[in-house]
Design brief:
single chain, 7 helices, 7 strands
């Protein structure tokens, strides 16, 4: 259980779902983990359930100052970064006819600006040979009604990751993206929709998945562990779909 022994990992959106599951797994594998999230209460609750070498940092990734503080706190505490997992994201649905500037700004500030600024701030402190991971989504490959701006944000993030892969190649830093399909995470409960609508949406998604079910946060975390480990030493620049086959048929 020491795949990531003494590696320093920063994970955004770490107070629940995929981020939290990945933080737990990284800690089990010997990493030192910085868990970042917007809600102090949630991070405090999470901290009670974790063991290992970790710190929590309250940070809103949509704010440049918070990204800068997150990286500074990490470096002040651990001196380096080996794994940067930019996972925080939101997916409030809205039909194209109802899109507002506020809707667009909220999604792009968190899903695109946040990861880009965090990457820029972290790069001087990432060890050569380190790893940068992004949480993308299969929505940038398939069209789902009501998720146009969210889909566009993930498409933008995928394009950014491609350029980043090339720009850091001289340092041996690997850049990869994970594209989850329907995953049983709190993101669905944060869409601002009635519970019955969320349940119907979930049922519709599951019926499209060849495996016939939602995935779990732990299944995404296992992929994040693999991509951060030496077992993936020759995997670079990819977007790997973890979606039960949804995007493949």
């Amino acid at each position: 259980m020491n795949t990531l022994q003494n590696k320093v990992a920063v994970i955004t959106g770490a107070n629940s779902g995929i981020g939290l599951a990945t933080a737990k797994l990284y800690l089990q594998e010997g990493a030192k983990v910085v868990l970042a999230g917007r809600r102090k209460e949630a991070l405090d609750d999470v901290a009670k359930s974790l063991s290992g070498d970790f710190i929590t940092v309250v940070a809103d990734v949509s704010k440049s100052d918070d990204n800068e503080r997150l990286i500074k706190t990490t470096v002040d505490t651990y001196g380096k970064i080996d794994i940067l997992f930019l996972n925080a994201g939101i997916a409030p649905p809205t039909p194209i006819s109802d899109i507002t500037v506020a809707h667009y700004d909220e999604i792009f500030d968190i899903n695109v600006k946040g990861p880009i600024i965090a990457t820029k701030e972290a790069l001087p402190h990432i060890n050569d040979g380190g790893t940068i991971l992004f949480t993308s989504s299969v929505v940038n490959q398939k069209g789902f009604d009501g998720l146009s701006v969210y889909s566009a944000s993930k498409g933008a993030l995928r394009s950014f990751a491609r350029v980043l892969t090339s720009e850091v190649k001289s340092r041996g830093i690997r850049v990869n993206s994970i594209a989850p399909g329907p995953i049983n995470t709190p993101i669905y409960g944060k869409m601002g929709l009635p519970q019955e609508v969320v349940e119907d949406m979930g049922k519709g998604f599951a019926e499209q998945v060849p495996l016939g079910r939602f995935g779990t946060s732990e299944e995404i975390a296992s992929t994040a562990l693999f991509l951060a480990s030496d077992a993936a030493s020759y995997i670079n620049g990819i977007e790997i779909e973890v979606d039960g086959g949804l995007s493949q048929i």
